[in-house]
Amino acid sequence: MNLPFLKKKVPFLFFLFISFLIDYVIIDIAYKDNLFKRNEKKNIYKYKLYGDIDEYAYYFLDLDIGIPEQRISVILDTGSSSLSFPCSGCNDCGIHMENPYHSNYSKTSLILYCDKTKCPFNLKCVKGKCEYLQSYFEGSQISGFYFSDIVSMFSYNNEKISFRKLMGCHMHEESLFLHQQATGVLGFSLTKPNNVPTFVDLLFQNSPNLTKQFSICIAEHGGELIIGGYEEDYIVKNIKKGNNKKENEITANIINEANHNEYENDVINKKNEDSNEMKRINEEINNIIWANITRKYYYYVRVKGFKFYGTDFLDNNEFDVLIDSGSTFSHIPESVYNKLNFFLDILCIPDMNNVLDVNKRLRLTNDSFINPLLFFDDFNSALKNIIENENMCVKIVDDVQCWKYKDYLPDIYVIMSDNYKIRWKPESYLYKKESFWCKGIEKQVNNKAIFGLTFFKNKQVIFDIENYKIGFVESNCPSYPINTRPKTYNEYNKKENIYLKVSYFNLYSMFILFALILLLSIIFYLKKLFYMYYLPLQNENEETMEIRMDMK
């Protein structure tokens, strides 16, 4: 059969078929890529964190221990290695959010008994049980015994993770542990040789499909612990502009500092280098800055510089700093702290109506400083903005500065070992205290530098266990205020304890009032006895006179 019309349409049909095939392949690849990304996100386990820097001084999450589960709130602490909490029978333990863990209520609980002096992991045998003993940097100490049970982590976006873990049972608490609201502590550091396996190592051993990473992202109130990686959607993609021009003024001035001509050529060159570096930071703000872990079992990284308005306060020195979510504030070397605090004191104006004091600050010159600032004009501009906007500052305990607003306060740049800079913004190193923003940086103690919660805030801090690196990236961390935390079935019954129902001040006032009433009662009683025994006739005469008056 001769079909000429079909012959004419064959090239067209062939082209249509090829186009359809290409479209199908593209759609299939896109679908698989999207599916891969979805599956990749599925392997991220998110856990809500509660707490803040001012009221709680820590961030905590909820774990379930044993079968059936007993809910326990634990402080997230990357500076220690143990999981521990109070157990029933502890007479030296404080009152916390939940009732103490009761081993008899769990079918899977096993106390780690010892035969005279033999205990695993080089533990001590005390009264037939393997001793648990832990001391903390701020002076707290807890002790008790070891036991094992099933730990369950309920992710709000994924399935439950469960595994058996050796834990510490508190039989004695002191210092801060006595008064903290969270019931226990969860150490997130790594396992030392021949020591009790840590939570992190057991977590990844029992979840082989997980990427060996976890990240912490905290806001002013609450945050998230992310197991298996980090959340790309939280990362700040670019600098917010236009909403608050004043907040970006300092940054903009620093970036454009290359245009200043009043300094000598070598200084201008330094400014150009620094300005270009800051432009790079601003353009690549969504890039994660990685630093190598410098010590084997704890999360230390190397800091090469500490820049404030372009001037490096470290003077070519370096120091190792512990990245510690269990420390409330950040602790830096004393020499660096003193230099930083000197300039923050200039920006701290307690009385805006004191014209002499304000003018004295405005007349300061860069030459008058022991450590001149490379970007002095920007520092001076920040000072003027603080004065113009009446950003009053007060000082609290240990002369810590607290500003009414965080606007116009400077960024600090921390230079890591690979010369990348981490921007430490006022939103992080300041914390909200009532209606003020207070400095959360202190001098280091015992020659130990720590970047605590005031460094974590508004960043994702990513701990890459496999590659021994820690990443830092500015992020919009989710907020979970404490009043959004669900009530727990194991919650401590406050009605059982009057000391939790009233504040210390009210309790003290009640005690004083009771003592006064008791004292007055005793005085009136003694007075009555005195009149009864020593002036009986006077009483009788008074009574007789009253009767006669009534008769009249």
UniProtKB/TrEMBL annotation:
Signal peptide limits: none
Example of a GO MF term: aspartic-type endopeptidase activity
GO cellular component, one term: endomembrane system
Span of domain Peptidase A1: 59-473
Cysteine pairings via disulfide bonds: C119-C130
Main location group: membrane
The UniProt record lists the keyword Membrane: yes
Localization, UniProt: Endomembrane system
Keywords, ordered alphabetically: Aspartyl protease, Disulfide bond, Hydrolase, Membrane, Protease, Signal, Transmembrane, Transmembrane helix
E.C. no: 3.4.23.-
Transmembrane segments: 12-31, 504-526
Mode of membrane association: Single-pass type I membrane protein
GO biological process terms held by the UniProt record: proteolysis
Annotated Gene3D superfamilies: Acid Proteases
PANTHER family in alphabetical order: ASPARTYL PROTEASES, PEPTIDASE A1 DOMAIN-CONTAINING PROTEIN
Family per similarity comment: Belongs to the peptidase A1 family.
Official protein name in the record: Plasmepsin V, putative
